[in-house]
């Protein structure tokens, strides 16, 4: 959702930077302790990762490719942790760290990638524990192993279920924010994103892209004479007509008030004009279901057409051109199409 996603990114960025700072401080401490104990390899790994954390810390604060750098950090972090676990003289207490991994990885990487890296890390930690300590020899060792294993599996399950639920909720909220509740069509929130995608495809494939800007004629009259409920019914009926007349690959949205917009990929100006004319005639012939009168007022639509390239290379230019032609259609009597 356009509101929650930036906030989520800020939270992830803050957590990752805090993780880097804690890793750097803890790495310095444990690197000196391991150096004192004569664990040169472990100390070298920790010092190297301290340096890596300090180098990436300013990058995370300003990068636009957060997920890439998050992966670039947490996977080596998990690898360094497993490398230390594999060292014969490493303290058994370091095996507590893999239990925290699923929480961190799901939060930073999302449910799918977080689950994949978590399973790989926990499996690696389990194999290293088995190779270092073997199977539990007594009840005390079995209790310790069982507690670590159950804590790891529970942490993984909770992290994955929570993140999956959060992602589904965010996706649903994004859909709600991008949908006009009256007509069920997308609203303007998706317009910029969709235009960029359609525009890139049109340029890559050397195909035309046309835009229709449509306005229901005499809409104020419908509201004033028949009531706002009738006006809402007219908007819903026109949205249904749009869906039935246009293709699945066309983008439709309620542009605002009684205005609607359609983007038609792989459609020239001439073809767009024929599509608009078919829509105009279909709307004239559709019964006015919002009126109780036996002789309902005619309902018509005016359309302005713009085309990528000849009318501009960005959305603002196309909207200005289409809006200017829509204004001409209104000024010249309504119920018509202006394409150039």
Helices and strands in order:
Layout: H1 4-36, H2 40-62, H3 66-85, H4 97-109, H5 111-133, H6 139-177, H7 191-205, E1 209-216, H8 219-226, H9 228-245, E2 251-256, E3 259-265, H10 269-285, E4 301-307, H11 315-331, E5 337-338
Parallel strand pairs: 4-5
Antiparallel strand pairs: 1-3, 1-4, 2-3
Helix pairs in contact: 1-2, 2-3, 3-4, 3-5, 4-5, 4-6, 5-6, 8-9, 9-10
Estimated radius of gyration: 31 Å
Distance between the termini: 37 Å
What is the makeup of the main sheet?
A: 5 strands, mixed
Total number of helical segments?
A: 11
Oligomeric description of these chains: single chain
Report the sheet-strand fraction.
5-15%
The topology string of helices and strands comes to HHHHHHHEHHEEHEHE
Which structural class do you get from the secondary structure elements? alpha+beta
Contiguous uncertain segments of 5+ residues: none
- Give the strand line-up of the largest sheet: 2-3-1-4-5
Average pLDDT, rounded to a whole number, is 86
Helix amount, in percent?
A: 55-70%
Shape: elongated
């Amino acid at each position: 959702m356009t509101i929650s996603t930036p906030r989520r990114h800020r939270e992830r960025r803050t957590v990752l930077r805090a993780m880097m700072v804690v890793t750097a401080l803890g790495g310095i401490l444990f690197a000196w302790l391991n150096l004192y104990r004569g664990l040169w390899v472990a100390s070298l790994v920790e010092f190297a990762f301290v340096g890596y954390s300090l180098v990436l810390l300013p990058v995370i604060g300003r990068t636009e490719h957060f997920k890439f750098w998050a992966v670039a950090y947490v996977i080596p972090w998990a690898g360094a942790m497993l490398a230390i676990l594999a060292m014969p003289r490493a303290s058994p207490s370091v095996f507590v760290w893999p239990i925290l991994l699923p929480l961190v990885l799901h939060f930073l990487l999302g449910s799918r990638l977080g689950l994949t890296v978590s399973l790989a890390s926990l499996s690696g930690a389990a194999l290293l524990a088995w190779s270092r300590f073997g199977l539990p020899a007594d009840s005390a060792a079995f209790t310790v192993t069982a507690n670590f294993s159950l804590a790891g599996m529970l942490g993984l399950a909770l992290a994955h279920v929570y993140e999956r639920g959060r992602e589904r909720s965010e996706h649903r909220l994004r859909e709600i924010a991008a949908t006009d509740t009256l007509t069920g069509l997308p609203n303007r929130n998706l317009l910029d994103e969709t235009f960029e995608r359609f525009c890139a495809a049109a340029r890559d494939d050397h195909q035309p892209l046309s835009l229709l800007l449509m306005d229901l004629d005499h809409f104020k009259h419908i509201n004033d004479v028949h009531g706002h409920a009738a006006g809402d019914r007219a908007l819903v009926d026109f949205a249904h007509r749009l869906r039935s007349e246009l293709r699945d690959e066309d983008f439709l949205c309620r542009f605002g008030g009684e205005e609607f917009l359609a983007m038609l990929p792989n459609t020239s100006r001439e073809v767009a004009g024929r599509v608009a004319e078919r829509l105009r005639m279909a709307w004239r012939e559709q019964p006015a279901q919002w009126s109780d009168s036996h002789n309902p007022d005619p309902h018509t639509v005016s359309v302005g057409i713009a085309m990528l390239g000849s009318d501009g290379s960005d959305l603002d230019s196309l909207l200005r051109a289409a809006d200017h032609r829509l204004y001409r259609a209104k000024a010249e009597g309504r119920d018509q199409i202006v394409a150039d």
